[in-house]
Amino acid sequence: MQRVKLIDVARAAGVHPGTASRALNPDTTGQVSADTTRRVVQAARRLGYVPNTFARGLRTARSFVIGMVVPDVTNPLFPPMVRGAEQVLSGAGYTLVLTDTDNDTATERRQIEQLRARGTDGFLIATAHWDDPLVEELADSDVPTVLVNRNTASHRLPYVGGDERTGVALAVDHLVGLGHRRIVHLAGPQDTSTGRERASAFRHALRTHGLLVGRGQVRACSAYSEQAGVDTTTRLLAAGQEFTAILAGNDLIALGALSVLDAAGLRCPGQVSVVGFNDLPLVDKLTPPLTTVTLPLRDMGALAARMLLGKIEGNGHGSPVAQSLLGVQLAVRGSTGPVPK
Amino acid sequence: MQRVKLIDVARAAGVHPGTASRALNPDTTGQVSADTTRRVVQAARRLGYVPNTFARGLRTARSFVIGMVVPDVTNPLFPPMVRGAEQVLSGAGYTLVLTDTDNDTATERRQIEQLRARGTDGFLIATAHWDDPLVEELADSDVPTVLVNRNTASHRLPYVGGDERTGVALAVDHLVGLGHRRIVHLAGPQDTSTGRERASAFRHALRTHGLLVGRGQVRACSAYSEQAGVDTTTRLLAAGQEFTAILAGNDLIALGALSVLDAAGLRCPGQVSVVGFNDLPLVDKLTPPLTTVTLPLRDMGALAARMLLGKIEGNGHGSPVAQSLLGVQLAVRGSTGPVPK
DNA sequence: GCGGGGTGCACAAACGATTGCGCTGAGAGT
DNA sequence: ACTCTCAGCGCAATCGTTTGTGCACCCCGC
């Protein structure tokens, strides 16, 4: 596979392989004279030496591989996080292995097992559920792990996410500012932290404005999908609930809501205003362009990666559990307007 | 790192580690009696044995890692291909390492180097340029490689893509069927196979319909981006070229074209029809919904992965170079209509 | 001039799985 | 009954790197 190995470099430099190893390794190069180091480094460069990852990994039990687990790469929410993480990681000499669970717990377990068998140095988990045995297992184990995008109930692991509560508050303020009083929240799945957090923040925001939160005003969708948005909105209309605005759990749910509203002859924003979450690509080009909460996805991925590196390279101690919430913004667009008279 | 190793299993089964190894390995289990195999397998399962990838890789010089190189994960074109590939590969016991070149050749080279150092068993390349030194290097090397989505001039490596020519023909037939005679092609970058192929197919399709291809009728964009679409369309209008329909090199270019047309007061599809390529998510929800060519992205990824596995596990021989083009479809939507009178 | 403290390096033992080789014993063939 | 064969398994080398240990040797101070 690889031609030139350490022993070749050592021979070329006229030293023992062990010495060559120390010379090449930044941490141990101090144990070797400057002159020898120079000769070894030169020989290595000249011969084009690349260390064999297997041999090194076998000896050191480190792989420089980070596993990142997402539910579905084709969901545009995740690629920016992946990019952010990858840039940080590859800058630090790590390789990111991305794996897709297809929203399936069994698959997820299998993938994680496989990665652990590979000696993965750490995990970035974007699939966490509110009660998540897999995540608890990771927390019990000694492999460094950081949660991103979704948290768990236990708060046992470091977490990086968006400031959901502020996002919801911005959206509600905006709607209330437009005169809306009857606002419905099509919440995300309540087994995810984002779904719960946004719903809780929604109730809180309404109360802040002195509005009551009636029953049926928060309706949880079964998934963060357009179809779930369609279903829940259909039920909402069937229930005869009155409302002039919808805060959707995310953009996909908002899309589902919009299509049902359209089919029911309810104009947006004329009769109903709609706000989404995440600011997916192209939602600004729809008719009407979707008002939505923008999360710093890329920064979330990058920060999570940095925190993970800190856990790995910092000797395990340091701030044990950190919960970081990154700032969000509200992108006000065409799907929200003044409350109809 | 890992508790239980082969020697533990062997001890539990009362055999030599070597024997245990053979018993566990499907290829060599024939060298061990059925009874012994059963005992070993049972012990392995009971103890929860997972082989150490490093030790195995060191000995066998195989990693069961496939590197996939894409220009940008956040471009929705790629995630479906990644998923398709990942499913095939993980089903076969391989791990997919996804890497993002950020459309930068230097980054790409670095990433590929790093992956090769890791003993990557094969590459799936989605970043190929028409003349691509990096790809040629891979072709020269002995590491199995399959190109996907984009081909190179040399045709030295197996390739899986969509049937671009048919896609273009469908689009042109559709436009001509609507009465369009003055059709402009906003071609993709001409250093990519897709850009060249679509442009060439466009000329060919026009001739098939007995239409002349005038100068200025095919205009190459500098990138597959919305901005490039904006720029090229702006130039097109400035040139005073007459046209009633645009075939865009891809959906992003089409989006750019649409916004410029809109700004210029040209209604779509009333005055100008627009066809895209790729069928990105949400382009069916725009106003007007974009008529576009649909590629089987997921199948492309899956087939490419299968071909790569064939190259890796088939002993190198077999059909040396295969070029596979998968069927495409035209999704007719609202952005195309009858030619204005 | 001699002992002591260091520096700089060589030596060799790991890491854990795979695999060519060779030994043992049982069955078959004559 | 004796050899031949071959299935089944144990033995030990091997993959390439890292790292604890110890041996030189040099310089210094007494």
Beta-strand portion of chain A reads 15-25%
Tell me the span between the first and last alpha carbons of chain A.
75 Å
**In percent, how helical is the residue content of chain A?**
40-55%
Question: How many strands of chain A?
Answer: 12
List the uncertain runs of chain A.
Answer: none
- In terms of quaternary structure, the protein is homodimer
Q: Structural class of the secondary elements of chain A?
A: alpha/beta
Radius of gyration of chain A: 26 Å
General form of chain A: elongated
- Sheet of most strands of chain A: 6 strands, parallel
Helix count of chain A equals 12
**Helix and strand element order of chain A:** HHHHEHEHEHEEHEHEHEHEEHEE
Would you kindly provide a written description of the structure presented here, covering whatever features stand out?
Two copies of one chain form a homodimer. Chain A has 341 residues and is an alpha/beta fold. Chain A has helices at 6-13, 17-24, 34-47, 53-60, 78-91, 105-117, 133-140, 164-177, 193-208, 226-238, 251-263, 297-313, and strands spanning 65-70, 95-100, 122-125, 145-148, 159-162, 183-187, 218-220, 245-248, 273-277, 291-294, 323-326, 329-331. Chain A has a six-stranded parallel β-sheet, with helices on both faces. In chain A, strand 1 (65-70), helix 5 and strand 2 (95-100) form a beta-alpha-beta unit. The relative contact order of chain A is 0.12. Chain A binds chain B through residues 1-2, 50-55, 57-58, 61, 63, 72-74, 76, 79-80, 82-83, 86, 90, 95-100, 111, 113-119, 255, 280-283, 285-287, and chain B through 1-2, 50-55, 57-58, 61, 63, 72-74, 76, 79-80, 82-83, 86, 90, 95-100, 111, 113-119, 255, 280-283, 285-287. Chain A binds a DNA duplex (30 and 30 nucleotides) through helix 2 and helix 4.
